[in-house]
Amino acid sequence: MNSLNGKSLKIAIQKSGRLTEQTIDLLKRSGLEFDAYGKQLFTTCRNFPLEILFVRDDDIPEYVQDGVCDLGVVGTNVVTEKGAEVDFVEKLGFGMCRVCLAAPENSDINEVKDLEGKKVATSYPRVLDGFLKEQGVDAEVILVNGAVEITPSLKVAEAICDVVSTGTTLRTNGLCELATVLESEALLIGNPGGVKGEKKRDLERFLMRIRGTLMARQYRYVMMNAPGKAVTRIKKILPGLSSPTVLPLAKKGMVAIHSVVPEPVFWDVMEQLKEAGATGILVQPIEKMIL
Ligand code: PRT
Ligand code: ZN
User: Fold this and answer.
1) pLDDT value of residue 285
2) How far is CA 115 from its chain centroid?
3) Which residues contact 118 (CB under 8 A, 6 or more apart)?
4) Residues 6+ apart with CB under 8 A from 196
5) Contacts with 151 (C-beta within 8 Å, 6 or more apart), sequence order
6) Nearest ligand 1 atom to alpha carbon 166
7) pLDDT band, very low/low/confident/very high, at 270 (cuts 50, 70, 90)
8) Is 61 in the pocket of ligand 1 (CB under 6 A)?
9) Concatenated DSSP letters for 250-271?
10) Cβ partners under 8 Å of residue 31, min gap 6
């Protein structure tokens, strides 16, 4: 394997964990060609001046802050806990979770202020400390590096503050959520000093690819037929980025309308389009979207 090349952009991603698969998928769908397998520490893109370092997620904020890497993909929870000085470049829309406070179901702790004078176990001492201060609650923060959810039953702490996704782990351990301390998702982070020289252009090209892929995910391409007299009403319904394309059809009085529709309002828009007289609605995913 070649050694790292000082001229290429470098991105640090999680080697093996919950963010790995979707990070690799995002890079590949953005047109970057590389091999990622096994115990590699880094890999080089075949069609772009980019090197990918595979590391533990906890090391990513510091690598990016110190300029070892120009970019990184890591959860908001980790980057906030590390207190690293990095730029938040893009939210990536996966790795969704939240850092939550929780206490045993049958305890006398039912809300955040009940934590006063209590012990709270967590792997996120900085995040928790900040939240408790904000809430004016004085509790003892106990640092635990794993299996935080079992600390109340071991009498190590009276409550916990940990990452929650579905909530199954909390329920299995008889714990009840008290409050959300931090919402988290995978982020693309960058070195605050930015990159200089030749790499700057590569960074812009890289970001255009990633953003094109991320944006495409948020929209659908929609085609439909409609009576010409329904066009004004349909145009009002379509929340597209620009005016829809309207084309005459061979059948007199009918038109074809093409537009993009944002994913979050997709079904509402479809219902309204049908009511307005649209027929034969076809929907396609968009692969890339460059504005
Ligand atoms: O080895 P390395 O240090 O790189 O990885 P890691 O073990 O520290 O992290 P990893 O791979 O578990 O998670 C990486 C990132 O994924 C986290 O930092 C979060 O940003 C994000 N993420 C998303 C999660 C979860 N969902 C999640 N559910 N991280 C952890 N969990 C844990 C949670 O704490 C609970 O214990 O998964 C368990 C199951 O969650 P429930 O609520 O679905 O039961
Ligand atoms: Zn980790």
Assistant:
1) 93
2) 31
3) 109, 139, 140, 157, 158, 159
4) none
5) 121, 142, 144, 157, 160
6) 43
7) very high
8) no
9) SSTTEEEEEEEEEGGGHHHHHH
10) 47, 48, 209
17 in contact with ligand 1, CB cutoff 6 A: yes
Answer yes or no: is pLDDT of 1 > 50. no
Q: Is 183 in the pocket of ligand 1 (CB under 6 A)?
A: no
Can you tell me which residue has the tokens 């900085």? 126
Bridge partner residues of 176 (DSSP)? 103
Instruction: Give mean pLDDT, residues 117-141.
Output: 98
Q: Which ligand is nearest to the CA of 146?
A: 1
pLDDT at 240: 66
- Is 78 near ligand 1, meaning CB less than 6 Å away? yes
Summary mean pLDDT of the chain = 94
Q: Are 183 and 127 in contact (CB under 8 A)?
A: no
Contact 291, 212 (CB under 8 A): no
User: In sequence order, what are the residues at sequence separation of 6 or more whose Cβ sits closer than 8 angstroms to the Cβ of residue 271?
Assistant: none
56 residue type, one letter: R
